[in-house]
Structure formats: C-alpha cells, structure tokens
Amino acid sequence: MDDDLVVRTKGGQRTRAPIVMTGSATWPACPDQDTGKVVAKGTSEKVCPAFVIPAGQKPAAVEVMRGFYKKPLERPVPS
Length: 79
What we know:
Blueprint: E1 5-9, E2 14-16, E3 59-64, E4 73-76
Antiparallel strand pairs: 1-2, 1-3, 3-4
C-alpha cells in the first residue's frame, strides 16, 4: 500500500515515499506492518512511511492512488 500513498504540497508537487533500506532497524513510533492485512471500510490503519518534501513547500494533502482512471482519495493535512 505504501507505493499508493502520495503527498501533495501546497505548491502542487507530488512526492511518493522513498525506499529506505534499514536492515534490522526499527522505527520507535511505528507498528510492524502486516502487508497482507485488508482494512475494512470505515476503519483506519496507522502506517509510517517517510516522505521527502521539497525545500520551501508544505504538505497540503495525503492521496491514495486508485489506478489510472479513478481520482485519488484525498485527506487534507492540517496546517
């Protein structure tokens, strides 16, 4: 699912989470990922990808891409 997440900046740029090779490193505030888990409608799931935001930009929304023909789902980022 991480490859479907995109951050859109207030300047209109979009960025995906980079691939980070951490070996056995762990992220203290992130749960272990269950990549086979299906999230039911109306529920939420905590994910912890990192995004690189260009200098001088602020995030405006997180988008979930849904293929080529459907518009992405969008969740505004509080300012």
